[in-house]
Amino acid sequence: MKLLSLESLASLWVTVFALLAFGLGTVLVLKMGFTPTEVLALPFAILCINLLAAIIHTPSFRGEWALMVFHIALLVIILLTGLSRMTYLKGRFELAAGEQFTGRLLYRENGPWHDISVLEQLPFKHISIEVKYKADGKRGKTNNVVLWQADSNEKYKAVIGDGKPLYLKGYRILPTRHFGFSPLFGWQPADGSPLSLGTVNLPSLRLGSGLSTNWKIPGTTLDILTMLELKTPIPNPEQKSVFSTPVEHKLRVSLLGKSYVMKPGDRLNTPEGLLIYEKLGTWVGYTIFYDITIPWLLASCVIAVFALMVHFLTKYKHNPWDKE
Amino acid sequence: MVNMESALLWAALCVYVLAGSLAIIAVVMGKKPERLILGLMLVGLILHTSAIGVRWNRLGHGPFGTMYEILSSNIWSLMLALVLSYWRIPKIRPIAATVIPILFIMMGWLLLADSRDSTLPATYDTIWLYIHIGFGKVFLGATLIAVGLSVVILLRYSKSEIQRFPSLPSDKALDELAYRFMGLGLIFDTLMLVAGAIWAQDAWGRYWSWDPLETWSLITWLFLALALHIRPLLQPSPRFGAVMVILVFIVAFITFFGFPFISTSAHQGVV
Fold first, then answer.
1. Is B30 left (phi over 0), alpha (psi -120 to 50) or beta?
2. Are B143 and B185 in contact (CB under 8 A)?
3. Where are the alpha helices (DSSP H) in chain A?
4. Chain-chain contact of B187 with A36 (C-beta, under 8 angstroms)
């Protein structure tokens, strides 16, 4: 009876059913927006049981070691994918020039076994960003300077950018295509509380020329519209340009129904306090990713493909059509 | 340079059409001008390679950006797959008559596509682009030859007084060969997915993001795996096997050319 059930679990019908369920699951993810883990957990589990039963039971596997290795590698890939879903982290955050990463993410997706508190201890600071544009406005190289601290407490500077991430405690940190200008303001409340500093991240350059944003000074009722006017546009469609600071600009601030043009160092008196425009800085968006299974997944894939190649090469030594 | 590129491409397409027409006429008339067909396909390939080379040199990047470039480079690689199988497996040479009409459709599409210059994003500046695309081209090339064999099997089943493709081996042998090409396709499709995942991990910080092209590539892989598993399970007739091969090719074709056609970039939203 046991053998019979193992045989039925190892059946190719189960494989076909699991592959169809897997295909249906991927369509549901694509078209209906289902979470992949939810939809694909069952087909993956069925495939896993089917593969395990086939490896133990199928007699043809014993004589064909390459096919056996291929299926074991597939089983390992499925198990690693499951482990990956439990432990991964994917997120996005923004940092202004000189800002330390505090672990706060704008978007986060993670497996239940991932300890989020580790993010708060990532010793990483964004220093500056420079993006070169060609004369046709096409984005060129991104040079993003960051400061990070090793376990030995030594500090290192690194330039990261397109395809060049920063690896820190297993996390992969990479600047995105989203970056922009961020004016730095000082705020001195009228009640004598200490001066505080804060940046306002203007929209990403990638979104076009609308470099303005509405914001509110924290702890006040003041709504502010901040608009940046650059002397020459970035990217410039007529000549090469560079996104970096300093840059010639005017900062227009609309507050309490009036509009003001501010230069670095300018101050604006309001009934609730003093607004100081300190300087124009930059911000950059980052992605952060963690998945301990990647090298093992890659190794398993390489073994699977190699085993499949060996299997086909040994199986197809004869050419039946040559005899006809 | 643009004129030279255009002239070379047109010349290549004309030679391909000539070779394809000869292959079809040869099958219908029962003739065997095989050396001439192989020679013409080779000349076409040389001209096409030159056209792609001139454009590559002018733009500073390979044919990977627009639909025009994707079509051109795939016609080139599929023709190369046909030439290699034509050269290495002489017994199946008449399948050129069933394969080339598929390339004719792609050539017509190429001529209608927007040939304006393209730019590639900075994330395309990686060796993984070439590895990923190279594996993909071998996969599609292997599947195309399997389709050529399958079309022969299906044509033989159609009601007609004429004995079709008499010089080709039996349906069983053709089915076996088609299955082998599909096996080769599975290997290279898997390699394409793995190389793509490595590139995505490098460029965008995630190896899989369920974008439409990625998802359809996975569906193609699953469909191919399904077709290969059905064979030992049901031991289908060559005709059933041929239909499966053609269905896999259709899914792969939609993945390769349907989604880049709908979206503005190969991987929508990530560049």
1. left
2. yes
3. 2-9, 12-32, 36-57, 59-63, 65-87, 294-315
4. no
Confidence of residue B102 (pLDDT cuts 50, 70, 90): very high
Q: How does the average pLDDT of chain A come out, rounded?
A: 87
Distance CA A218, CA B133 (A): 51
**CA–CA min distance A188, chain B (Å):** 40
The verdict on a CB contact (< 8 Å) between A29 and B215 is: yes
Residue B270 pLDDT: 41
Class of domain B125-271: mainly alpha
* Residues of chain A found within 8 Å of residue B216, distances taken between Cβ atoms: 30
Nearest to B236 by CA among A58, A309, A12: A12
Contact status, residue B178 vs residue B241, Cβ threshold 8 Å:
yes
The DSSP output letter for B77 is: H
Neighbours of B258 (CB within 10 A): 15
Region A14-27: mean pLDDT is 92
How far apart CA A116 and CA A224 sit, in angstroms, is 34
CA-CA-CA-CA dihedral for A45, A49, A51, A55, to nearest 10: 160
Q: Which two tokens stand for residue A222?
A: 């003041």
Q: What whole-number distance in Å separates Cα of residue B34 and Cα of residue A113?
A: 63
Segment A186-210 shows an average pLDDT of 82
Interface predicted TM-score (ipTM): 0.77
Q: C-alpha distances in angstroms, A162 versus A152, A245, A271, B233?
A: 28, 20, 46, 47
Angle at CA of residue A271, ends A267 and A275, nearest 5° = 25
CB contact under 8 A, B123 and A26: no
Band (pLDDT 50/70/90 cuts) for residue B125 is: confident
Residue ranges of domains in chain B: 1-120, 125-271
Q: Are A74 and A63 in contact (CB under 8 A)?
A: no
- Subunit contact A19:B222, Cβ cutoff 8 A: yes
User: What is the C-alpha separation between A70 and A311, in angstroms, rounded?
Assistant: 9
- In terms of residues, how long is chain A? 324
Cβ contact, residue pair B187, A305, below 8 Å = yes
More confident residue, A62 or A83: A83
| Nearest by CB: B215 against A19, A30, A305 | A30
- The 10s digit of each residue's pLDDT in A222-240 is 888 998 888 888 888 788 8
B170 touches chain A (CB under 8 A): yes
Q: Which amino acid is at B116?
A: R
User: Looking at A195-302, which runs of residues are DSSP E strands?
Assistant: 196-199, 212-216, 223-230, 241-243, 249-255, 258-262, 267-270, 273-290
Query: Which amino acid, one-letter code, is at A78?
Result: I
Q: Is residue A315 over pLDDT 90?
A: no
Model confidence band, residue A206 (pLDDT cutoffs 50, 70, 90)? low
